[in-house]
Amino acid sequence: DVQLQASGGGLVQAGGSLRLSCAASGFTFDDDYAIGWFRQAPGKEREGVSCISSSDGSTYYADSVKGRFTISSDNAKKTVYLQMNSLKHEDTAVYYCAADPVLYQGVNMTHLDIMLVNGWGHWGQGTQVTVSS
């Protein structure tokens, strides 16, 4: 079974940094999986933040985080990271990671215009990120 374990959330002041981790099991990063980070703030819909292809390392970022967040993967550890810098109060949300082998199979993530929220087959639990202003 594919399992995802998200961690690294916390309370940080605006302008600060956090690094989220998504530890995966049940598949290898040699497989063509898309692994993504999402967030959901109270009263708002879940939105895609960033995703990475486990096979070619291509990445996508939502405009709201471009230049501030960096997604990366450690294939040996089967872990995907989301480095979040210059955090803003509006980044406050529960952050989730998800993975899917089919949704973006063969897709270069850098060519994505938008990241789908629906259709991901495997989700981890959320980790709370709170940015104080």
Give the topology, please:
Blueprint: E1 3-7, E2 10-13, E3 18-25, E4 34-40, E5 47-53, E6 59-61, E7 69-74, E8 79-84, E9 93-100, E10 122-123, E11 127-132
Parallel strand pairs: 2-11
Antiparallel strand pairs: 1-3, 3-8, 4-5, 4-9, 5-6, 7-8, 9-10, 9-11
Structural class: mainly beta
Mean pLDDT: 95
The whole-angstrom Rg is 14 Å
Report how far the terminal alpha carbons are from each other.
40 Å
Q: Helix and strand string, N-terminal first?
A: EEEEEEEEEEE
Number of strands: 11
Q: Which percent range fits the helix content?
A: under 10%
Strand % is: over 45%
Main pleated-sheet profile: 7 strands, mixed
Outline = globular
* Low-confidence regions: none
Task: Determine the number of helices (DSSP H or I, runs of at least 4 residues).
Answer: 0
